[in-house]
Specification:
About 40% of the residues lie in helices and about 20% in strands. The strands form three sheets. Strands 1, 2, 4, 5, 6 and 7 form a six-stranded antiparallel β-sheet that branches. The chain is elongated, with a radius of gyration of 57 Å.
Length: about 300
Amino acid sequence: MIVWILILVWLQTLTPTPSPTPLPSTDDLVKARFVTDTPAPLTGKAFTLTLIVELPPEAELVEFPTFPAQWGLFEVMNVGAFESRLHEDGWTIVEQPLTVRLWQPLAFRTPDTFISYRTAAITTPQNIPVTPLTINVPTVLDFEDQTLRSFKPLIDLPYVSPWLILALISGIGTLGGYSYHRWQLTRSKGKRLTVSIPPSPAQIALDSLAHLKTMHKPTDYPMIADILRDYVRDRFEIALTTTADTIEELRPKLPEKSLADLQRILTDADLVKFAQVQVDPQMIGRVIDFARRWIIATEEQINVKGNS
C-alpha cells in the first residue's frame, strides 16, 4: 500500500503544472521616438525635432515631457503645439515639434526623455523612454585638404623717416602754442575793466520806499522811519540814537525846514510803534511819497552846497 502511494506521488511530480496566462502588456506597442528632417544641421542653424508617440486603442497618455530652454546641449528656441490624429484602426498618433539648434560640430544625442501612459487593464501610470535620436553637426573644415595657399600680398607703404614725423609733431606743437599765446593777448586787450559801484544811500532808501509802497499796511509806518534813519546814518555818517539826538546831529548839516519835516515823520513813527497809535491805511502812501520827496530834496541841497 505504501509503495502505491509513493508511486502516485511520483507520477504527480512528473505531470507539468500549467502556468497562468500573463496579462497583455502594451510596452511593446506604445512607442515614442524623435525624428527630424535635418539629420546634419549646420552649427547654429535652427532645425526641427518632432516627438512622435504611437498609442494603441486601449492606451492613453498621462504625462507628456516638458522641454526647458537649455535641453541638454540643445538650445530649444520654440516648443510647438500638440497634434493628435486618430487612425481607422483605433491607433492614436501624437506629435509635438521642437525648434532647436546646436553650437558645436559634434555628434549629439537627444537627452533621456520619458512619457507616461496607462490602459484599461493597467490603471497605474507606466513610464517608457523615448527612443533617442543622434544628430551629427558637420564641421566646415576640410581636414583632408592638404593644399598650401599663399598669404595675401603685403601692401607697400612709402618709407617715412621717424625724424621727419618728430619734426612735424614739434612744428605743430610750436604753431599751436604761438596761436594760443596770440589769442590770449588779443583777448586780454579786448577785455574792459568793469567795476561794480554800490548803490548810494539815497538810491537804497528810494528803492526800499518804492517796495514798501506796494505793501500798503498800517504797520509799515515805522518802517518808513527806519528807512529814513538808515539813510541819514549812511549819508551823513552819524550814530543813530533817539529821535531828538538824531535831529541835533543833523542840525549843522540840514536846513531847519528839512529837519522839521524829518522830525515829524520820526516822531509819528515812534507814536505808532510804541504808543500803538492807529494810522489811516490811506495815509501810508502819502507818507511814503513825502519821504521820497524829502530824500530827493535833501540830495539836491547837498549837491548845491557842495558846488558853492
